[in-house]
Amino acid sequence: MASDGRRYFCTAGRGLEPFLAREVRARLGATEVDCVSGKVFFSTEAEPGELRKLKSGERLFLLLKKHPPLAASRDKGKMLHEIKSLVTEEPKYWLDVISIWRNFHGREGKKDGVSQENRLPLKRKSEETNIATKRQKTEQVRETVSDECQVEAGERCVVAERKSNQDCQTESKTSLEDPSKSSGEEPVANEQLSFSFRVSCRCSGAIAKVLPSQEIGRAVGIALMKQCGWRADLRQPDVEIFVHLNDIHSVVGIPLFRLPLANREYIKTAGLRSTIAWAMASLAEISAGAFVLDPMCGLATILLEAAIEWPEACYWGADISDSQLEGADVNIKTAGLMDKIELLKASVKALPLPSESFDAVISDIPFGKKFKITKDIQLLPDILQEAERVLRVGGTIVLLLSQELHKRMDDITKCAENDSPNAISDGASETTTAKALNVDGNSSSLVNGVEESLLSSRQTPFGSLVPDGVYGVSLGKTDAFIHKYRKISSSGGNR
Known about the structure:
This protein has 15 helices and 19 strands. The protein has 495 residues and is of the alpha/beta class. The longest helix has 23 residues, at 131-153.
């Protein structure tokens, strides 16, 4: 942990780590930025209100420990000892940690922690005298918390959080079955340390093959109870200890907010994942006074993210579906952006808009079980041609494509290269390498570790669009690709 206690890490969806690394630098003035799969570590002196503004991250943590991965061993006892040693420290260390955590929430305007501490003895007494009732309630809470985790952090975190719930339940039983541990003189004297906690443990890689998350969480929880006099509480813990062990690193942290950053209070009905929508808008290079269009806006998630972040631009959304437009209208009103976003019913193949009238076109091309992928593949050239028509020279197009549509884009490229009079006789062509922002904010030739061939840098079959980057991202159960294009000249079919 940094000496000033302002070292953090934020989780991110796969493929969004470069966006988050760039954002923490630009928005928070972060230093010591370290980007790994699924996480970005950084230091900043930003206040809680500024930290909450992060748009491309999922959950934000105060970093307590970051160490190299633990060596897997057949000796479980030895491994558990090493893990407990990683988390537990001298009491002064945890006093400093909790002081930082409380100061953070104090600046955030939360209730005074003293009032919560004053309630602890009463809660403990009640638990000691009614163990059976507590256990029954714990079973009921397990399902509730699991549901909360699914809503807050998406499907990827459900299993891990369920494991942590089991850990917390076991820890609660341990503390309740031995009331003397919480009723002696020492815990009363150290009442300021005796607040509630739970451990969320997530393991993957080699260590997960030896020790299950439940066993690790239980061992860590018991160690903290013995050392600090803390009390395990699944329902409403004062603090949550997050432990993540994998083949890359061993990390311990405390989540700063109950809900993930990706949960937007200004979006009533969620469509596209908000972090993906923000990342797409960030690629569009929106400036003050710009006109931005989403020709297949759906519930207007992309437009909402863009309008919140870049409020000095003008936004238009089109869709052929009445139900989607109704949902978009509700979202726009909920966010209070009625004066920023205009909606119209129109087909993406024939937009009733003037040529070269928009500075950016951003859209999630629908795909998945609710949509007919085959139809979208056939319409892809028409969609691109119409987007090209309404885009001004120098403007950008940012599209989210499924794996199938991504492959279709490559097929279109190959056809265009073969038909081009400038094509090289042996079929080879000059290509632009897919760009992905690395942690230094520069372009890289890797997208999730795999080099991507882009469309010909000379021209696409759409006349005036030049590819300017491909970014592989995860949508949870499926992968997708963000394609970016720039218009370099007036297109032919203007009307």
